[in-house]
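User: I'm designing a mutation panel for DoxX-like family protein and want to avoid disrupting the core. Could you give me a predicted structure to guide residue selection? Please restate the sequence first so the numbering is unambiguous.

Assistant: Good idea. Sequence first, for numbering, then the predicted structure tokens:
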Amino acid sequence: MNAKDENVLRFSVAIVWLATAVISLWEFNGQSMDLLVNAGIGNRVVAKALIAAGAGSDLLLGVAMALWPSRRVYLLALAFMSAMTAVASVLDPSLWLHPLGPLTKNIPIAAALSILIRAAR
């Protein structure tokens, strides 16, 4: 893969993480909270802590991918995404059937991260 293609792929994936962080915080007391409450996390203090931790992790990973790309950052992103996909699958398996693909989108993102891991210098 040439450097230009690698950068396009890297920034595309970084934007997903950055947008997720922003949207999670924007919808802190809306969709983000509803998602956790509907999944059975009724304690709002715990739910708020989980939302903040997830958004913070997304922000850090997005910034790291954009500014300090490395095999380690991509592996961390892949591990975090895999863990969050597993947690979401347990909390609300119906997310796999959602027409906009909140979990199925992780399959091509995992593929993109795998390519970036192999291409990382």
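For picking mutation sites, this is relevant: The chain has a mean pLDDT of 93. The radius of gyration is 15 Å.
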